[in-house]
Amino acid sequence: MGQWSVETLETLMREAGSIDEPGDRIEFLSRRFLGMLYQESTLIGDQNREEVLVINLEALDCFTFIDYVEAMRLSSSFSEFRESLRKIRYRGGVVSFENRNHFFTDWVKFNRDHIEDITDAIGLCNTRSVSKILNLKEEGTCFLAGIEPVHREIKYIPSSSLDSQVVGGLKTGDYIGIYSELDGLDVSHVGIFIRVGSSSFLRHASSKKEIRQVIDEAFMEYVRNKPGIIILRVKVSGKGAYLAD
């Protein structure tokens, strides 16, 4: 649990529950993660090892960071948090390596009642669409052994098209995926869009050797040399939305 106890976590979630706007609730919760250490491969399970529902609030990677924030957004107790996390991280809430949402676009495909892909709506004529077979590398091997490759249409906004109008359509709390040009991947990194006055940031768990923690980076500076972005936005719903599934 790192710096957290069950009591402090529940107090934080109750405080977040008084914030009506989902994006502001995400900002409030994710702010508490700033400075938390980056660590890859914190989840337990693969094709040869039984999957375990892991809650590791001491160190995290970019994807588990948004997993935990989204689960906290919908919860007011530790038991609700654990149940929300199970349903966010695993298809149908079934804990197994095969059912884990390994890809960013899995989030919207399997949690579509609660999260929507708004890339096309924000990018409009700037949005590009590409057909990919996720998990299948160019040479024919898989990124993740034991996970069946799946065909998916990916929509993204090229970074060259991220002008003031496009960025102006983003909201605090939007989940941002950094589009990957590699065969078999939808994104290379994920984070949370944060707007403070006229400034905008990407809040994310950075794997850079000199950082390796959750930080805020200037959004446009971060994405300028990246291929593009995918944008997911939570739908307005009350706490316990995943629990009602």
Description:
With 245 residues, this protein is an alpha+beta fold. It has 2 domains: 6-110, Putative xylanase fold, CATH 1.10.3670.10; 115-234, putative xylanase like fold (Roll), CATH 2.30.260. The protein contains 8 helices and 12 strands. Strands 5, 6, 7, 8, 9, 10, 11 and 12 form an 8-stranded antiparallel beta sheet that branches. Strands 1-4 form a two-stranded parallel ribbon.
Distance between the termini: 27 Å
Order of helices and strands: HHEEEEHHHEHEEHEEEEHE
Rg over CA atoms:
17 Å
How many independent structural domains?
A: 2
CATH superfamily of the largest domain: putative xylanase like domain
* Share in β-strands: 25-35%
Shape: globular
Number of helical runs? 8
Q: Could you name the CATH topology of the largest domain?
A: putative xylanase like fold
What is the helix fraction of residues, given as a range? 25-40%
- The first-level CATH class of the largest domain is given as Mainly Beta
Give me the CATH architecture of the largest domain, please. Answer: Roll
Averaging pLDDT over every residue, what do you get? 94
Main pleated-sheet profile: 8 strands, antiparallel
Helix/strand/pairing class, anyone? alpha+beta
Low-confidence stretches: none
- Tell how many strands the DSSP assignment holds: 12
What's this entry about, in short?
With 245 residues, this protein is of the alpha+beta class. Helices cover 27% and strands 26% of the residues. β2 (44-46) and β3 (49-52) form a beta hairpin.
